[in-house]
């Protein structure tokens, strides 16, 4: 069993840490939030006084932070960062969803310091973090990914090695760009059907077995009825919050701009989710709730 430093103990990191401890690993935990630290101690972790103190006490460092600027600072700050404080040969695993450029910059700095690092963003949400059923999309060299696999297995059900540094983040944002575009397309189809006098259940019965079939239709159907477990049946309580979808669509657009990829539908989906999230507290609703805006009812 490893001694793990876990930094970033929020909605995702808290339950992920708990699953590592349940699997028998020792853990030194750090977060800026006192409440998060209290919860981590209750789960069995040792409270660390700083990022560097946690990293210096461990063989493996796992981070679950909000965005690229937090990851760059927590890893690369010369005086207080993980890379300066980590033990020789330590394995660094960043599970945050961040921009590809930051992921590659941090991985490069870690490699230069003689450390092994992978980017390992997740899908599965808070429910998956609690149940230990996350899917990890992992970017990094073969040896680092194989070293990370048994740690990730304690928190998830699937570990996919996507390629070199940054490709875990690339897989995550490409997938979620598809998802965002598909959800908008499914919402538009149901609203068009409504205006044409076609019953929602009938459209579902046809399209779920025809070429319009996709996850946004068959698992997260944005109208109440056809899929009883979808957020539409509970007034669009998330689920996967619209604000999270907007974050991922912004990352996709940032990556498209820096790599020269044309993603006109991704750009349109980003604009629509930005408009939706600007409407009161719509950002907290499930991302399928954008059907209200598309229907002109929000
Ligand atoms: P969160 O805001 O609940 O948690 C982030 C934690 O990081 C907070 O507790 C915060 O105090 C801590 N933090 C920030 N800066 C810090 C620093 N310098 N040092 C130490 N701790 C610091 O966010 P979350 O929902 O847990 O999401 C974390 C990451 O996971 C994000 O990148 C998000 O996009 C990704 N993600 C979230 C979900 C989800 O459903 N919540 C799903 C998939 C991926």
Automatic annotation (TrEMBL):
Which SUPFAM superfamilies does the record cross-reference, listed alphabetically? 6-phosphogluconate dehydrogenase C-terminal domain-like, NAD(P)-binding Rossmann-fold domains
- Asked whether the UniProt record includes NAD among its keywords, one would answer yes
Which residues does the Swiss-Prot or TrEMBL record annotate as the active site?
A: 172
Designated name of the protein? 3-hydroxyisobutyrate dehydrogenase
Please give the family membership noted in the entry: Belongs to the HIBADH-related family.
A GO molecular function held by the record: NAD binding
The source's domain of life comes to Bacteria
Where in the numbering of this chain does the 6-phosphogluconate dehydrogenase NADP-binding domain appear? 3-163
Domain 3-hydroxyisobutyrate dehydrogenase-like NAD-binding stretches? 166-293
């Amino acid at each position: 069993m490893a001694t793990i430093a876990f930094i970033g103990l929020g909605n995702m990191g808290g339950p992920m840490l708990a699953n590592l401890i349940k699997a028998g690993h020792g853990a030194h935990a750090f977060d800026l939030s006192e409440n998060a630290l209290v919860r981590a101690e209750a789960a069995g972790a040792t409270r660390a006084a700083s990022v560097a103190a946690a990293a210096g006490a461990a063989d493996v460092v796992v981070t679950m932070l909000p965005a690229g600027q937090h990851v760059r600072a927590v890893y690369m700050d010369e005086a207080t960062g993980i890379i300066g404080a980590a033990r020789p040969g330590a394995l660094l695993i960043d599970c945050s969803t961040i921009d590809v450029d930051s992921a590659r910059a941090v991985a490069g700095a870690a490699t230069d310091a003689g450390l092994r690092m992978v980017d390992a963003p997740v899908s599965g949400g808070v429910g998956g973090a609690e149940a230990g059923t996350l899917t990890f999309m992992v970017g990094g060299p073969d040896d680092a990914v194989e070293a990370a696999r048994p740690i990730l297995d304690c928190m998830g059900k699937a570990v996919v090695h996507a390629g070199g540094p940054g490709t875990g983040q690339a897989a995550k944002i490409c997938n979620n760009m598809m998802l965002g575009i598909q959800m908008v397309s499914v919402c538009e189809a149901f609203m068009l059907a409504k205006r044409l006098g076609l019953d929602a259940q009938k459209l579902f019965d046809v399209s779920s077995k025809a070429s319009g079939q996709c996850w946004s239709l068959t698992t997260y159907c944005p109208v109440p009825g056809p899929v009883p477990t979808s957020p539409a049946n509970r007034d669009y309580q998330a689920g996967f919050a619209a604000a999270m979808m907007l974050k991922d669509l912004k990352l996709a657009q940032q990556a498209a701009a820096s790599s020269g990829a044309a993603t006109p539908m991704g750009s349109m989906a980003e604009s629509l989710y930005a408009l939706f999230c600007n409407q009161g507290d719509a950002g907290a609703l499930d991302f399928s709730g954008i059907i209200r805006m598309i229907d002109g009812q929000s």
